[in-house]
Prior knowledge:
By secondary structure, the chain is α+β, with helices and mostly antiparallel strands. The protein has helices at residues 104-115, 139-154, 224-230, 245-259, and strands spanning 3-8, 15-17, 22-30, 37-43, 54-59, 62-72, 79-85, 94-99, 119-122, 132-138, 158-162, 167-171, 176-182, 187-195, 203-210, 215-222, 234-238, 263-271, 281-286, 291-303, 309-315. It has four domains: 3-85, Baseplate protein-like domain - beta roll fold (Phage tail proteins - horseshoe like beta roll fold); 90-165; 173-196 and 263-315, Elongation Factor Tu (Ef-tu), domain 3, CATH 2.40.30; 203-259. The chain contains four helices and 21 strands.
Amino acid sequence: MSFEFFVENKKDGKISEISELVTSISYSDPLNNGCGKLEFSYLDDELDIYNGSVIRFRYQGTNIFYGYVFKNSRSKAKKVPIVAYDQLRYLKAKDIMVIQNMEVADIITRACLYFNLRKGNVTPTGYKLPTSVQDNKTWLDVIYEAIRDTLLATSRKYCLRDEFGYIALRNLEELKLNLILGEGSLCYDFNYEKSIDTNTYNLIKLIKKNEESGRVDVYIAKDSDSFSKWGILQYYEEEDKSSNDATIKSKADALLKLYNRELETLELKCLGDTRVRAGTSVLAELSDIGVNKRLIVKNVTHHFLPVHTMEVELCI
Length: 316
């Protein structure tokens, strides 16, 4: 077989290699938008896979997925479907936390300690986040907001991901692949879209509650020229009361620069390459739409049986 598929039953510690039983495998990996997911099915051979069981999947010698079963089901059909997630799934828990004199790596370290998760290569960003109290938010959302704030302040892009059972923070500059996807190179179909429906804003409104005056301070950054084209697309966020005026104004300007554009998405259907993960970048070459540049992978889904193919969503 070209792959290895191990299941560890945490009830009794028994480890089974079930590659001969597996009939389908799909692995989905999003960029800073949730956990990695492995969906597979196997032929029922009196093998029970329980929730919490550990899944290890390697394809052609490459580590693909290490995670835990969260859903299993049964029917009259002999094929049993299973859903497993990587460690980031545990960071969907809501909590309250104080961010003070911390950078993204510190939040990740705290999360790993709290949830007893394995920490891998967590890259220091060198940027201290503004002091804030994060209440009733998931740990993932807090980390993603910290990654975004780091981007606004430093122009450096980072991604949070699980690397075969170890949580990592990577600078996207580290993840450039020497790989071309496009005409004559792995790609056999594509879809291109321009949209202002999601994550496009031309008016940024940040507010801070002023305890001294009892009022609300409002900070606006806008692009009036695009109002006539798209209408007013407003972004709203409440800032921590400890944030100073200059910091909030700078953040509003940076958010406008980040979001005041049409969102272009390119979806490719390709033959598979196990190096392609969310956060990696590839050279995209499609003359039909005039694309010939390096693009970041926003989402990828790999299908491994009967042959390895992948659906790749790229940010333009």
